[in-house]
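Please complete every field before forwarding. Incomplete forms are returned to the sender.

SECTION A: IDENTIFIERS
Entry label: holo-367
Bound molecule: pyridoxal-5'-phosphate
Molecule representation: SMILES string

SECTION B: INPUTS
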Amino acid sequence: MPRPIQACIHTDALAHNLQRARRAAAGAKVWAVVKANAYGHGLARVFSALRSADGFALLDLAEAETLRALGWGGPILLLEGTFGVDDLARCERLNLWHTVHDAAQINWLASRSKPRAHRVFAKLNTGMNRLGFSPEQYRAAWQRLSQLPAVADIGHMTHFAAADVDGGDDDARELFLRTVDGLPGEHSTCNSAALLRHGGDAARLGDWVRPGIMLYGSSPTAPQPDARDWELRPTMSLCTRIIGVQQVAAGAAVGYGETFRAPRPMRVGVAAVGYADGYPRHAPSGTPIVVDGVRTRTLGRVSMDMLMVDLDPVRAAGRAADVGSPVLCWGRDHGAEMPIDDVAAAAGTLGYELMCALAPRVPVHVA
Ligand SMILES: *Cc1c(COP(=O)(O)O)cnc(C)c1O
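SECTION C: PREDICTED COMPLEX
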C-alpha cells in the first residue's frame, strides 16, 4: 500500500470560483492568474476548469508554452514581461501579451522589426516599489513604446500594495488614473483583493481584472472576510491518515525538542504528513487539523514526514481515532472542511504559500 498521503484538486470549485470572479468583475474581462504552476495546483490540472476565462496570466514562458500545448488559443499575459531580448521571438511565436515595466524591455522591443507584433501592458509603480515606471517616467515610457513599429497595442497596468484593506488602494488608483489620463489603451489594476472589495463597481474595475488567489479558494483578505464570506470554495485538499497511535502519560513530551508536554494522559495520533510534503514546519503546536471529520489540533513540532495530533476530541465525538483514520490538513473531504487560511494563520503565513509549497512527492488526484 502506498503511503496514504494525497492531494486532491477540485475542478468544480475552480469553476465555481472563476464564476465568482466573473460576477464580481461586472463585465470586465478576466485574466485567470495561473503563475507558479497555478498556485501549486498544476497548470494542466486547472486548465479545463478555468478555460472560460478571457485570458491566462503567468510569468514563465515555459508555462505559456504549456498552455498553448494544452490547446489554449486565447490571450496569455506575461506578468513580469520579458527577461531578455531573446524572449521576444518566443512572444511572437506564441502570440503572448507582455508587461513592460522597465526601460530595458523597451530597448529590446526597439530591436524587433516585425510590424505590430506585440501587445503590451505598460506598468505603473503606484507605490509598491516593486515593478513599474514611476509616475514621472510613465508618460515618456508610453511615448517611446507607442512609436515602436513592433508594438501593436499598449494597455495600462498597476498592482496595488494594499488592496486587502479598506481604502488601501484608493490613493494608488487615483494616481494611476491621473497618470494615464488621456492615453488610449485598456486598464488593468485589480488583483483578487481589489476585485472582491470593489466587486460590481465597474468604474473601479477597469477593462481587465487579474484574480489569482480567489480562484484557488483562499481569501485575499484573510482572516476577515474569510473564504466563506466571499463565497469561495476550497480547490486543493491535502489528506492523509493516522499511521500510529501513542497513549501518552501526563507530563510526557511529544515530538522533536519536547516542545509539547501532555497536561494529562492523552491519546496521540501520528499522521503521515510532514514538511517534506509541504505542510509548514513553522505551524506551531495547536494548529487546527481535522481527523475523521472532527476538528482537533497538532501537537509539538512538525517533522519531515509526520506530525502528531490530539485524538481526544476525536474520541470524544464518538469516532474511532485509530490507525487508518482519515486526516484532512486543509481543504474539504466528505463534508468536513479545514480552511487553508486557518492553517496559514496559525503558521504565520498565507494560503498562497501553503498551496505553492505542495511537494512534488505528494500524489495528486483531480476530481
Ligand atoms: C500574482 C498577481 C496577481 C494575482 O494576485 P492575487 O492576490 O493572487 O489575486 C495579479 N497581478 C499581478 C501583477 C500579480 O503578480
